Amino acid sequence: MHTRRLGRSGLKVSELSFGSWVTYGNQVDTRAARELMAAAFDAGVNFFDNAEIYAKGDSEVIMGKVLKELGWPRIKYVVSTKFYWGMRTCANDNNTLNRKYLLDAIDGSLKRLQLDYVDLVYCHRADPTTPIEETVWAMHNIIERGKALYWGTSEWNADEIRAAWDIADRRNLHKPAMEQPQYNLFHRKRVEQEYTRLYEDIGLGLTTWSPLASGLLSGKYQKGIPPGSRGALESYAFLRDGLTDPAKNAIVGKLEAVAKDLGCTLAQLALAWCVRNPRVSTVITGATRVEQVSENMKALEVVAKLTPEVMARIDGIAGSAAG
After folding, report:
1. In sequence order, which residues have a C-beta less than 8 Å from that of residue 34 and are 6 or more positions away?
2. pLDDT of 222 higher than 90
3. Which of 62, 61, 130 is nearest to 94 (CA)?
4. Among 75, 115, 152, 291, which has the highest number of CB atoms less than 10 A from its own CB?
5. Domain boundaries, the chain
6. pTM of the model
7. What are the residues whose beta carbons fall under 8 Å from the beta carbon of 164, sequence distance 6 or more?
8. pLDDT tens, position by position, 118-142
């Protein structure tokens, strides 16, 4: 497992990381989570991604218990959380990035994770109702108080990220170091086009999510929604139309031939494709079984096989459907 710098920062994260979205608290309990995280760590993963909203806080509780039980030296792993949606339905704790919410939210996450600090903290979405300067100051204060080491954004557009960075630069505050966007063969434009200037101008790092397009690129949804899958969960019913999209599943079928020629699975091909982008600091993976962790890690063996000719072949198959 190789590591990459998180943008222009000095922090190094593993090329493949492990996230808890959907699985923890929904498909995975503490015992299973321990096995999964241990397997990922043993494979060289050092970054574990989480968020306040995942399973309404239970995801952080589970990860916190696992980290306590495993007892890894704190220097050996990186943990994240994200804020925006809030845990309670009230004026200052719901779809916001105001100062009151953010300073309260970090304390809640640290308690659930049983940590003194998180390495990365994200503004999970942009908040058009709160001045960006207020949000930037709050994130700066979280870092100054030793509760996080770096802050960033998730699914912000390029103008919003640059505005936050410029405010921090003018005020000599901690600047946003990373963005967490969706990135996969069907969702590419933001990473490959919209953020292009930000990589060189401000040194933006990327911790990308959904490399398999919620499982679509694994091929498991070509014949419908299988029992026990993410698409079968009622809380994620909003994904079903996309997962069963006939046009996209036809593309997945064509990509199977590429994977076969490379001697890998569809999922490994999709993961390797994301890792191959040098702008990506780390690709967040997920799993419900230890075997899946092992299979995902094998994607790193595929990266070197993605020659310009193979990349052109993949682009010829999936490029037209990319958003």
Report:
1. 66, 69, 70
2. no
3. 130
4. 152
5. 3-216+277-289
6. 0.94
7. 132, 135, 136, 153, 156, 175, 176
8. 999 999 999 999 999 999 999 999 9
Fold of 3-216+277-289: TIM Barrel (3.20.20)
Q: Do 17 and 206 meet the contact criterion of CB atoms below 8 Å apart?
A: no
Assigned token pair, 78: 């990186």
What's at 100, amino acid-wise? K
CA distance 260 to 266: 8
- Joined tokens for residue 57: 């806080």
Whole-number average pLDDT of the chain = 93
pLDDT, residue 280, reads 98
Which 8-state DSSP code applies to residue 198? H
Q: Give the residue numbers marked as catalytic.
A: 54
Q: Is the dihedral of CA 36, 37, 42, 45 positive or negative?
A: positive
Closest to 54 in 3D by CA, of 294, 235, 220 = 235
Give the tokens for residue 144. 């100054």
